[in-house]
Request: fold
Amino acid sequence: MADDGSSSVPAKNPPLDRSAIERVLARASELQATSANTDSSGLLTEAELMDIGKEAGISPNTLTQALAEERSRIAVVEEQGFIAGITGPAIATASRTVRGTPIEVLAAIDNHMQREECLRVQRRFPDRVTWEPRSGVLGQLQRGLNMSGRGYHLTRASQVAATIIPVDNERVLVRLDADLSHSRDSRVRVGAGALVAGILGSGVIAVLGTLVAAPEAIMIIGTAAAVPTLLGATAGYQVGKGHRQLIMRAQLALEQTLDRLEFGSNRRIK
Reply:
């Protein structure tokens, strides 16, 4: 039987979709961890990860950016429970990859935070800067007049931080965090105080009612006594829920900072 030559032409592998790539990387990691050439820790070096990604058809730039995002990731314990369900998270965060060197980008962010957000430097590191609300008469006057109309929502945070991770020679990953845990704790205390005050008010009404009212009016007294508790619970709930608005405004302020950084208005270092 004549050979038609088809067996000598290697078949071209079809491109992998996202699900296939994820399975390949997961399986490659498992194989690497159980390989005889790998130590018992099962850890991968960046070079090994780049090789795996290359075999899976992932571009080096994409892997480099993913590695930068992993380095900037902060493990935040997921908050659960009744209080967290009402108030929402304590920290607002935003991240983005932008063009520029670490020094240039960090200087631009520092310029923006001090000039536009009414903050001052708290700590300064080579790849990270933290700020706190500006105190004193000038800071209070700037926030009070609010000539820019910005609202200065980041001044509600006890600390605002920027972390810079180089992606390559032309890009960096910027991560911004605003810690509003102190503000949330204050709201929780105020809300709890409103609830306690309502309960105490109900107790006073109940005690006085039973002393001066006729026995047949007990039902009416009980209903009246429940009103302060209901009002206190409602007030406490609204106070706690107001923290969600603070987080949303702080989140927006962080995203707007990254917008200006990415599209140029914050890149003018004065």
Remarks:
- The domain at 89-180+253-263 is CATH 3.30.530.20 (Alpha-D-Glucose-1,6-Bisphosphate; Chain A, domain 4).
- Residues 5-10, 266-270 have pLDDT under 50 and may be disordered.
- The longest helix spans residues 218-263.
- The beta strands are 91-99, 119-124, 128-133, 159-166, 171-179.
